[in-house]
Amino acid sequence: MSLSNGRSYLAIPGPSVMPEAVLRAMHRSAPNIYEGELVDLTASLIPDLCHVAGTAHHVAIYIANGHGAWEASLANVLREGDKVLVPATGRFGHGWAEMARDLGIETKMVDFGRKSPMDMAKIETLLREDTDHEIKAVLATHTDTSSGVLNDIPALRAAMDAAGHPALLMADCIASLGCDRFEMDNWGVDIMVAASQKGLMTPPGLGFVFFNDKAAAARAAMPRVSRYWDWTPRAQPDYLYQYFGGTAPTHHLYGLRVALDMLKEEGMENVWHRHDVLARAIWAACEAWGQDGPLTLNVSDPAHRSRAVTSLRIGLPHGPKLRKWVEDQAGVTLGIGLGMFEKDDPKGLGFFRIGHMGHLNPGMVLGALGAIDAAFKAEGIPHGQGALEAATAVIAAG
Predict the structure, then answer these.
(1) If residue 159 lies in a helix (H) or strand (E), which one and from where to where?
(2) What predicted TM-score, i.e. pTM, was given to this entire model?
(3) Which residues does residue 321 pair with via DSSP β-bridges, in sequence order?
(4) Cα dist. 361→269, 274, 279, 331 in Å?
(5) Which domain holds residue 391?
(6) Domain end residue (candidates: 265, 282, 317)
């Protein structure tokens, strides 16, 4: 007999939990898309999106998921035959590279594995060796959603500057924006991509490309950009439809407006602090479980872990049993081990992920941890004791 009646909890790394206020804002009749409140509301989103991103420059909104934002960012500044450097620390670094290759862009991959961040010294060396500056951009994933690795973007900018390389620095913040600290202008990022369904607490469907004046100059030098992906009319519209290349995603905009209001009211410093505390509470619980059992955190150094998602290895047959019990009996859905395959586990079933991003508080985190703790006991999975006490101690200390 299942105990999972009641409100379920989606503890996956996106789509994140949608605030009731966001859902209420979207539950309305369709508005006029030619004039009136929607025009003003859309214009009001731009400065607040830029505030969350830490930029005084530009943003283009696309009716797309993160993959669409990847393609939009590439299409505006790179042409067929151009070369990019892609340092990867998980599945999503490879995904952006695949997108580039499909556009005819030459990709130089540097795979740092799935447990450690980028080696900035190695990247600096590669850029120094590129004396003809054939590399036009560096595609860096801030937080890789599959591995949970958090990369040091300011250090990457420093490495590029030390090499004296003019390449564009492009950052994928799809998982991290609104969760892990990110400051686009202060960190010297030229282009950043994000999406609505994670730290921005809005249903999937909106992709964002933030870009500075250096990136705008690179766009101006392009011989052509497809009309739909071109960020110029989206960032400098004369009419509402130009923001979106056509009909506005009306209800998403109402939801996003409320989500940005919530972030603004809380304040970004507090948002980052909340995510830090809750992430450390989860890590404390996982470390306690792992003291006398097979559970291990994928990233050993806390400084290199994302505050948005934690990837964990528990091995077979425990992984599928744990996730199934937690969902079927407790109504909590954990993320699958995306891209975290091993020789004896080609589908990565011995891994799982906990999403802790966006609309989240201690009660939600402790509820999910309690469900996982119960699953360990119900399924007879070896584990250490004191996990919930360790998590509550972190939260109590704030």
Answers:
(1) helix 153-162
(2) 0.96
(3) none
(4) 16, 8, 11, 17
(5) 9-16+268-397
(6) 265
